[in-house]
């Protein structure tokens, strides 16, 4: 898998969105970490994005990525991006992705991988990671689910994005 990882350790403010936690009675942020975004975008053939602070003259930190896609084309490979903020947490994190599709009675994994391998993400920090998959989306038209999971010490925070494969 071609890996392009960009990490930041502090100072990015992202807008929180609806991540789901798999731990009973633990929501996004209740474990001390908030997943602020997760998406798939086309892989930049010029290699210019993703990049951190790529907007010259910007007065704030910025995370420059390909436009997130809800329609994934079979035969294409994608870059998966995740951002999260460690608010009140001590320990390690590991970020992964999985693209799944219900085919009959089976849940089939079409693509999966590691966005960021295990590292110390203790608070207070912000993180932005991306990974380019070496797999192409198979010809399997229809709805699918893109899941980003942040594994913590003893817990998980997950964000799911509905997508369509064409």
Structural notes for this entry:
This protein is mainly beta. Helices cover about 0% and strands about 50% of the residues. It has strands spanning about 20, 35-40, 50, 65, 70, 80-85, 90-105, 105-120, 125-130, 140-150, 155-165. The strands form three sheets. Strands 1, 5, 7, 8, 10 and 11 form a six-stranded mixed β-sheet that branches.
What name goes with the CATH superfamily? Immunoglobulins
The share of residues in helices is under 10%
- Fraction of residues in β-strands: over 45%
CATH class: Mainly Beta
* Count of structural domains: 1
Elements, N to C (H/E): EEEEEEEEEEE
pLDDT < 50 runs, ≥5 residues: 1-25
CATH architecture: Sandwich
Number of helices: 0
Q: What's the shape?
A: globular
Ends apart, CA distance between termini: 23 Å
CATH third-tier fold name? Immunoglobulin-like
Mean pLDDT: 84
Number of strands: 11
Computed Rg: 16 Å
Structural class computed from helices and strand pairing: mainly beta
Largest sheet, strands/sense/barrel: 6 strands, mixed
């Amino acid at each position: 898998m071609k890996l392009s990882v960009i990490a930041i350790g502090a100072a990015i403010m992202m807008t929180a969105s609806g991540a789901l936690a798999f731990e009973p009675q633990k929501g996004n942020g209740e474990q001390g970490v908030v997943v602020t975004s997760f998406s798939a975008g086309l892989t930049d053939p010029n290699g210019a994005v993703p990049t951190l602070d790529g907007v010259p003259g910007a007065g704030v930190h910025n995370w420059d990525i390909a436009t997130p896609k809800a329609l994934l084309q079979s035969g294409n490979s994608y870059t998966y991006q995740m951002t999260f903020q460690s608010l009140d947490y001590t320990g390690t994190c590991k970020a992964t992705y999985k693209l799944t599709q219900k085919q009959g009675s089976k849940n089939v994994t079409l693509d999966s991988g590691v966005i960021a391998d295990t590292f110390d993400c203790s608070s207070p920090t912000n993180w932005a990671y991306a990974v380019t998959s070496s797999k192409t989306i198979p010809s399997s038209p229809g709805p699918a689910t893109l899941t980003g999971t942040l594994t913590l010490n003893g817990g998980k925070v997950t964000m799911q994005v509905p997508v369509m494969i064409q």
